[in-house]
Each structure stands twice: as structure tokens, then as C-alpha cells.
Amino acid sequence: MNLLDAAACLPAETAGSVTFNDWLAPAPAAVSALAPESPLYRQLYAGIRRAISDGQMAAGTRLPSTRILAQQLGVSRNTVMAAYDQLLAEGYLDARTGRGTYVSTVMSGSTAPKKPPRIARQGVVPERLPEVGVPALECFPVKSWTRLVTRRVKCSMAELMSNAHPTGYRPLREAIAVQLGMTRGLSCRAEQIFVLPGFDAVAHLVSRALLGAGDKVWIEDPCSPLARAAFANSMVSVVNVPVNRDGFDVNLARQIAPGARLACVTPERQFPLGTQMSPARRNALLAWARNEQGWILEDDRASELNWAAAPLSTLARADGVRRVLYAGSFDRVMYPALRICYVVVPESAVAAFTLAWADSMLHCPVLEQAALTDFITGGHFALHLRRMRALYADRSNALSNAMAPEIDTGVRLISTEGGLFSTALFSGALDRDVVLDAFTAEEALHVRPLSSFCAHSQWNGVVVGFGAIEKGNLRAMIRRLTASVRSLS
């Protein structure tokens, strides 16, 4: 059976369904609701997965590009990319830079599991993932950055090469501590900060330092598929907890899976819904951590792009950094390829994290860390951040203004004052795959189906990244989106 036959002949699978009305009045019962038919990307994903599991697609088989397969199947390219994304995250496929996408050598034939595995490959990058959080790279101060890197190469390279910098370049950790004190009111020492190559490395280090095999980790549903896969890589038991407009609900999480050891949450700006966790739910989550000796991983990587509303106090600050681990990043403010993240850990856990780091050797290139230190201490970072906040505020307003006269009760735009994306919810039985077909030819627009971020619950809508799109193009694209929605309603 070839790839197309495998994708076409499989019956549809069922999936949890959350309707447009559930956003207005969310209910835990939505977790177990079943949709009568699964979306196209899930059918394609299931077909390819079964072909691999049954040995019909051998290890090392190269898959068609997303563009070619979309044309052959007559579906949106976004549909194919969403299916590939899930298979890559679960380890069924390998993405080889510049060479394409292949069936994994360790997940094919009789050795492949009949259900998605808990342990996925770490650091998998899809062939072309339709990003929704891409910054405006054309506005990055390349000359200033290049000058700082060049100066470090000329003046400090010997020192950087000869000296070990365990857990991160010390001056950078000191600069981060000062930055957090000024911008987030977070009091911490450089020794509490661990610099790591991406959020997947943060999740890996947290798991090694604090968790054991099989320990339960609560994670938001929907969330980034790569964040979910990062914990699965660490052999913990990932429990998906549905969120709504008030954010993560620890009481619901305890009903679904009591006895969890860690909760991974995005309280300031939930991804991909874009909402803030309510103060009541923040307090309840902190109380759970104190009373049951649980841990909270606060993913606050998008907070610095908040351009208007005063952010709520971080969970880490409210907790005094006792049971909360605070994760931040420079990738979204600067550029994605930088891949410098960090995590602030409680004083009581520094020794455990240092030992876990030594065993795993999760380190970032020291040259980029040194240049970033100069970028921060020289005032370049603060200046760039101010400019980007103004730019993204302008583009977000353009998105809202373009959509306001176009939408009716069939679409609800979730837009908050910060970040690089907005989410549109669809009501009724709108087929988001058909809507996304309107954007197949639009390479510049970053749109993903909201359901591609879901594990069990399923939202009907799309996530639109506006950070890298100029206002004029944004207005035209939104008009096409809303026209497609109206034609389907």
C-alpha cells in the first residue's frame, strides 16, 4: 500500500470537541465530548502512522514534500504540514535539513507501537512548520549585533574558548537577573539561572532534576505540540488538561489526574488561545504547589512583548521562587535561530539542577551568550524591545481593525495586548481546512488550525501570526479569510 492509499482508505477517528459556545461558557464536560468526524489532518496523520506501524512504509522511506502531497491529495498544504508535524513530534518521521522528511529508522515495521509513543525524538524540526510566532526579522538591528559579535571574536575569543561556563555564561546570568528584577519584579541570583538551548531543553532539565520516570505532568490543552513532546521525551506521564478563557484550572486537573508532580502553564499569555490566567486560578495553583509539594513551570517567554496592559505578577514572584520555576527566552524578541532560553529555579533546587545539567550537558554556544550580554548591558536590548512593542501593537491593531467590519457572530477574535499572534474561533460546522485552503498560495501569512495544538479537546478556529506581516498585506489576507468563513456558514 502506498502513501496515498494509506492516507485515503482509513476510517475517520473520533476526537474530543469543544464548540464556539464552550468558549463563552466553558465546561469540563467538553473534555469527553466526541466529534462525529475527525479533521483531514488527523485522517492523514492516522493513515501514515498506520502504514509505518504495519511495515508498509519501510524505515528510511522519503515522504513527498508537503506541497506535492497536498496537490496529490487535493487538500490544503497546511493540512499536510499539520499531519507531518504530529508525526515528527511522535518520532515516526525524521526531518533532515536540506534533504526532506523520512520514515524514522527506529519507528517502523514490527517495532513501531500501535499507539502514539510517549517518548518522542528530541529537537525534531518539521520540514516546514507554518509558524505563528515569527518576529519582524527585518527590524532586527543586524549591524549592532554583528559589531558586538565581531568585537567578541577579536577581543575575547581565547578567553571564551578556554574557560568553562557551566549552566551558562556568568555575566549573562547576572544581566538576566538584573533584567528580571526591573521588568518582572523577580528577585533572584545568577546562581539560580540556567541558560539553555530552547524550551525543549528547559523541559528536559526540569524533568531530570525534579521528576522520575512515570511522574505525572499537567500540561495545558491546547498548547505547543513541541512543548508537549519535550516532556514526553523525558519519560514522564503527560496529562493534557483543557483550558478556557480563565486559563489553567488546577481543580479540573486534580479530577483528571490526581497526584501530579508538576504543572507546566503559560499564565500571562496562554498559547495558543492568548488569554490570561485569572487571579483566582493563579492563587489556587500556587496553593496546590505549597500544600502538595508540587512544582510549577511558568512559561513566560511572551511576557516582554506585552505593549499596553500591565502584566499580572508572575507566579514566581508571588511564590517567592520556592515552588515555581520561571522560564524565559530571547528568541521571540530577537530572532528564533538564537535559541537562548533560561530557567530560574528555587534556591533549594540549585544543586539538583546543577547535577542534572552536568549529566546532560545542555549548553548554548558561549560566543552568542557573550554577545547577548553586551547587547543587554549596552542598552540595545531595551531599545529594540521598545521598538518591537510599538510595531507589534500597530500590526495587532491593524489585524483587529481589518477583521472588525468583516466578522459576524460566526467568528470571534481573541486579541490581547501582547505577543505575535491572535486566534479566531469559528462557530457552527465551519470546516477550518477549507478556510485554510484560501491561504495555500499565501506564503507570507502564518496560519495554523487551532486543532493542531490540541491533544484531546478540539477548538474550531485558526491561529494567525501577525508579527512578520506588514499592515497592508495583513488587511488583504484578513478580507480573504473572512470571505471564506462567510461562504461556509
Describe this structure in words.
The longest helix has 24 residues, at 380-403. A hairpin with a 3-residue loop joins strand 1 (93-96) and strand 2 (100-103). 40% of the residues lie in helices and 13% in strands. Among the domains are: 3-8 and 38-111, Winged helix-like DNA-binding domain superfamily/Winged helix DNA-binding domain (Arc Repressor Mutant, subunit A); 141-382, Aspartate Aminotransferase, domain 2 (3-Layer(aba) Sandwich), CATH 3.40.640. It starts with a helix and ends with a helix. It is globular and about 60 Å long. The protein has 489 residues and is an alpha/beta fold. The protein has helices spanning 3-8, 20-24, 40-53, 66-73, 77-90, 142-155, 157-162, 170-183, 199-210, 225-232, 250-256, 279-292, 315-319, 350-360, 366-377, 380-403, 432-437, 471-488; strands at residues 93-96, 100-103, 193-196, 216-221, 237-242, 262-265, 295-299, 324-329, 341-344, 411-414, 421-426, 446-449, 461-465. The protein has a seven-stranded mixed β-sheet with strand order 3-9-8-7-6-4-5, sandwiched between helices. A four-stranded antiparallel β-sheet has the order 10-11-13-12.
Topology of helices and strands:
Layout: H1 3-8, H2 20-24, H3 40-53, H4 66-73, H5 77-90, E1 93-96, E2 100-103, H6 142-155, H7 157-162, H8 170-183, E3 193-196, H9 199-210, E4 216-221, H10 225-232, E5 237-242, H11 250-256, E6 262-265, H12 279-292, E7 295-299, H13 315-319, E8 324-329, E9 341-344, H14 350-360, H15 366-377, H16 380-403, E10 411-414, E11 421-426, H17 432-437, E12 446-449, E13 461-465, H18 471-488
Parallel strand pairs: 4-5, 4-6, 6-7, 7-8
Antiparallel strand pairs: 1-2, 3-9, 8-9, 10-11, 11-13, 12-13
